[in-house]
């Protein structure tokens, strides 16, 4: 038999690899679906690429690549059998097969056990070889199989390590003798006893002293008074006040110089009047809430509709998304995006085409992972109701298990999150993020990956007309920009319960000063009309340069809609920055309407009685020494020397580093590094930096003694040079600068969101000489060279229509900051509101529309 297996595998030996360092083994999830070893058909892992495939997709990979040998992994989950004594009999076969494999469900270890099996499968004949089969398989195959079975799953390294298991019990915990000094710690209003600090406060478990910790790299911390206190008193144990939960707290030992465990922490805290059961910071799913705000508890209950008997729903469009640990911001955004028909049509409607033409590594393909996620949410394949027999069996056993027994497991967005967050410093972390920022991030990815194809984000795309008026001359300038979301201010001064708020604030300050119990919180009630009014009011333009006066002057800007999108996204600006630069939420309610009419905010363009500002730009002001000797400017241009030295320390030539920093506009070492990588093969890569003279006024200023430059002509050559030096085509760079009013930073963003499209020679020539005066003739009666270029290339990019909308979804945030808390979304489907709370999907009884953060409206038909 051994000889037979060896001969059978001989033709395939060159394709069987042993995983090397850096190879990712996808043995917990299919690249095209959410099938796993727990699925009915199990999971097939390619023994060459180590990609995982469900039963429906493995044939496609075989046909595309010719890889024939796969490892089939299957996990059998069952309830534990009961022995004669009533105890569970643990039973596990092939225990090492699934080492480091994530579970796709939350097991109760007392109720379930699992059996794992693995086998090699040879395509196309589906010949199966059970594993382990060490004696009968060739040595290379045995080593490869063992390496795959014992390799960590592909995303194991991206998960936060469980440092709690490594923390040791402090040797001072059991012998601690606390002082009976009568100290009682209030539930809020803490501050350092020596410096008035209110952040990073530590309670000494010996004498109850509340003191600040050290200053940390993330901006938190204090003045080190807790450490000084230890040096003075030799009291070693302290607990961080804002980490106390019913499950424990962060304890530090100054003597042992590390975080420690205190098995008697509850008793030690009760000595100072702290009841751990009343300290709420983290909920059952790991979502952060506030310690000392009863209002947040109320907010938590209202938004999640806690305490109500919500009916669970299953099937197409009712699939939940498993929380990976503070990933609810991703779940809510993707649930809503895939309730939009354009996204459904683009990614799910074209599912087979996307899968068939996917690259060899589909885990790194945006379209593939979007299609996979969309199909998982909309197919109903992963949201099936329990069988009646299962429910009856659960009722017979224990009634309370019914509540948990038929909760759907949801799908895990692990592969999708890894792809869309790749290279992003925030979204690639395991911290909570702002759902609004992630929404714009996904739209940006859709834009970049939809070149030449249908672009579903066009449904959110609209034009904003900005009108700037010089306060002295009363002249105006109109421009347009692209946007995807309107941000409405939340004017607290417009609250209908302002007197209540003032009284509460006075009582709160008094309680804080006297270390007393804070009063019952009061939430501001703001009319939606006041938010809309604040959005339309004029705002001052900082550092406004009036081309009519040819000098700085006062200017005001108003914004209106030049077009209305098919789907309108409205964000309520609930968050502001505190003194510690941490985003904090304004606690308020807004009576957001179900129906919204924005027609009166339609832009009108230049009016007959208005006079335009001259098309002039501020003159380029050169230093005095430059005016005397233009070469001195080119010899020593201003640049970030710190960035230059950082690049030089990497081993790049100094002159190349200087050019990289200069040509990227001093935008930082990372941008300069990218420039170096793109230009290091050029023959003059290490040549000294030489610049053209900046004193040449050019033809555009010959008729203008002030040196102002007409806007209608080409953008500043130095800005064009910076963009072209970064590898962008000249015509595309000029196009981007014109579209952003010659703002270099915005032009760079524009280029990334508007990949170069093929244009006729005539259009290219036009872009280099003069603006297209008819680009927005359909939207406005006047010409404007700063209008969105998308109207020039394709009128379908903006789906203009009536400004009347109906609310169909909203995202709510629970907590005091975008950096913590929890997100929940409500979506109106089939005439009823549905709440999506991670993997739980239920019919909503009381959708909390007044507490939302981001609202989604769809356009009403004109009829």
TrEMBL record:
Residues 789-798 have a biased composition (Basic and acidic residues). GO terms for molecular function: cysteine-type deubiquitinase activity; zinc ion binding. SMART domains: UBA, ZnF_UBP. Residues 689-718, 759-798 are annotated as: Disordered. The keyword Repeat applies. InterPro entries: Papain-like_cys_pep_sf (IPR038765), Peptidase_C19_UCH (IPR001394), Ub_carboxyl-term_hydrolase (IPR050185), UBA (IPR015940), UBA-like_sf (IPR009060), Ubiquitinyl_hydrolase (IPR016652), UBP13_Znf-UBP_var (IPR041432), USP (IPR028889). Zn(2+) binds at residues 192, 195, 212, 225. Residues 638-679, 714-754 form the UBA domain. Keywords: Autophagy, Hydrolase, Metal-binding, Protease, Repeat, Thiol protease, Ubl conjugation pathway, Zinc, Zinc-finger. It is an enzyme of class 3 (hydrolase). The active site is at residues 328, 822. GO terms for biological process: autophagy; protein deubiquitination; proteolysis. Residues 168-276 form the UBP-type domain. Pfam families: UBA (PF00627), UCH (PF00443), zf-UBP (PF02148), zf-UBP_var (PF17807). PROSITE patterns: UBA, USP_2, USP_3, ZF_UBP. It catalyses: Thiol-dependent hydrolysis of ester, thioester, amide, peptide and isopeptide bonds formed by the C-terminal Gly of ubiquitin (a 76-residue protein attached to proteins as an intracellular targeting signal). Residues 772-788 have a biased composition (Polar residues). Its EC number is 3.4.19.12. Residues 759-771 have a biased composition (Acidic residues). Residues 319-860 form the USP domain. PANTHER family: UBIQUITIN CARBOXYL-TERMINAL HYDROLASE (PTHR21646), UBIQUITIN CARBOXYL-TERMINAL HYDROLASE 13 (PTHR21646:SF105). Belongs to the peptidase C19 family. This is Ubiquitin carboxyl-terminal hydrolase.
């Amino acid at each position: 038999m051994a000889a037979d297996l060896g001969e059978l595998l001989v033709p395939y030996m060159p394709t069987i690899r042993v995983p090397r360092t850096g190879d990712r083994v996808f043995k917990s999830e299919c690249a095209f679906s959410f099938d796993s070893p727990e699925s009915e058909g199990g999971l097939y892992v390619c023994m060459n690429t180590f990609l995982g495939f469900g039963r429906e997709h493995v044939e496609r990979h075989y046909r595309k690549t010719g890889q024939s040998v796969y490892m089939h992994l299957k996990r059998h989950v069952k309830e534990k059998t009961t022995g004669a004594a009533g105890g569970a009999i643990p039973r596990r076969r092939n225990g090492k097969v699934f080492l480091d494999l994530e579970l796709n469900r939350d097991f109760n270890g007392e109720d379930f056990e699992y059996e794992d099996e693995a086998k090699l499968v040879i395509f196309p004949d589906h010949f199966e070889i059970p594993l382990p089969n060490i004696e009968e398989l060739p040595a290379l195959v045995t080593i490869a199989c063992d390496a795959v079975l014992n390799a960590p799953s592909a995303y194991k390294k991206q998960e936060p390590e469980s440092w709690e298991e490594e923390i040791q019990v402090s040797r001072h915990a059991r012998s601690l003798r606390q002082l009976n000094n009568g100290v009682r710690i209030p539930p809020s209003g803490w501050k350092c006893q020596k410096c008035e600090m209110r952040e990073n406060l530590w309670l000494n478990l010996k004498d109850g002293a509340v003191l600040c910790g050290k200053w940390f790299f993330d901006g938190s911390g204090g003045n080190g008074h807790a450490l000084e206190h230890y040096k003075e008193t030799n009291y070693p144990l302290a607990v961080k006040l804002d980490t106390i939960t019913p499950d424990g707290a962060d304890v530090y030992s100054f003597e042992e110089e590390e975080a420690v465990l205190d098995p008697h922490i509850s008793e030690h805290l009760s000595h100072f009047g702290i009841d751990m059961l009343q300290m709420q910071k983290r909920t059952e799913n790991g979502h952060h809430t506030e310690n000392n705000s009863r209002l947040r508890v109320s907010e938590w209950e209202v938004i999640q509709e806690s305490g109500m008997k919500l009916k669970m729903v299953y099937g197409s469009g009712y699939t939940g998304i498993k929380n990976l640990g503070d990933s609810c911001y991703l779940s809510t955004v993707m649930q809503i995006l895939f309730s939009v028909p354009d996204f459904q049509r683009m990614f799910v409607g074209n599912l087979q085409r996307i899968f068939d033409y996917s690259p060899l590594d589909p885990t790194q393909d945006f379209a593939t992972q979007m299609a996979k996620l969309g199909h998982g949410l909309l197919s109903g394949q992963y949201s099936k109701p329990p069988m009646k027999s299962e429910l009856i069996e659960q009722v017979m056993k224990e009634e309370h298990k019914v509540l948990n027994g038929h909760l759907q497991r949801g799908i895990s967005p692990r592969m999708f999150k890894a792809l869309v967050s790749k290279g992003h410093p925030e979204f690639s972390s395991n911290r909570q993020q702002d759902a609004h920022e992630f929404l714009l991030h996904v739209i940006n990815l859709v834009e970049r990956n939809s070149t030449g194809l249908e672009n579903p984000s066009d449904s959110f795309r609209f034009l904003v007309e900005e009108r700037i008026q010089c306060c002295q001359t009363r002249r105006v300038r109109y421009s347009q920009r692209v946007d995807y979301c309107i941000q409405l201010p939340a004017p607290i001064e417009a609250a209908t319960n302002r007197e209540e708020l003032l009284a509460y604030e006075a009582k709160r300050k008094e309680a804080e000063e006297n270390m007393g119990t804070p009063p019952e919180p009061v939430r501001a009630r703001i009319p939606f009309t006041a938010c809309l009014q604040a959005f339309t009011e004029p705002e001052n333009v900082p550092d406004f340069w009036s081309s009519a006066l040819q000098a700085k002057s006062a200017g005001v800007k108003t914004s209106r809609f030049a077009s209305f999108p098919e789907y309108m996204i409205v964000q309520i600006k609930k968050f502001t920055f505190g003194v510690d630069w941490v985003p904090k939420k304004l606690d308020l309610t807004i009576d957001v309407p179900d129906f919204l009419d924005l027609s009166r905010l339609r832009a009108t363009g230049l009016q007959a009685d208005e006079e335009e500002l001259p098309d002039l730009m501020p003159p380029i002001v050169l230093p005095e020494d430059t005016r005397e000797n233009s070469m001195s400017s080119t010899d020593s241009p201003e640049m970030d020397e710190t960035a230059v030295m950082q690049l030089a320390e990497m081993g790049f030539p100094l002159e190349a580093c200087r050019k990289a920093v200069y040509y990227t506009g001093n935008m930082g070492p990372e941008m300069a590094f990218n420039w170096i990588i793109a230009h290091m093969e050029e023959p003059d890569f290490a040549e000294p930096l030489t610049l053209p003279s900046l004193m040449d006024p050019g033809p555009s200023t010959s008729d203008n003694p002030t040196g102002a430059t007409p806007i209608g002509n080409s953008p500043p050559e130095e800005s064009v040079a910076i963009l072209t030096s970064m590898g962008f085509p000249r015509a595309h760079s000029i196009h981007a600068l014109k579209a952003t009013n010659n703002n270099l930073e915005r032009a760079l963003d524009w280029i990334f969101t508007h990949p170069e499209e093929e244009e006729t020679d005539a259009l290219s020539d036009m872009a280099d000489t003069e603006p297209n005066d008819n680009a927005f003739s359909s939207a406005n009666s006047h010409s404007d060279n700063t209008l969105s270029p998308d109207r020039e290339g394709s009128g379908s990019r903006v789906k203009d229509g009536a400004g009347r909308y109906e609310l169909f979804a909203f995202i709510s945030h629970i907590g005091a900051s975008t950096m913590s808390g929890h997100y929940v979304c409500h979506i109106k489907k089939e005439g009823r509101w549905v709440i999506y709370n991670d993997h739980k999907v239920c019919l909503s009884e009381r959708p909390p529309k007044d507490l939302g953060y981001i609202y989604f409206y769809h356009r009403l038909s004109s009829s």
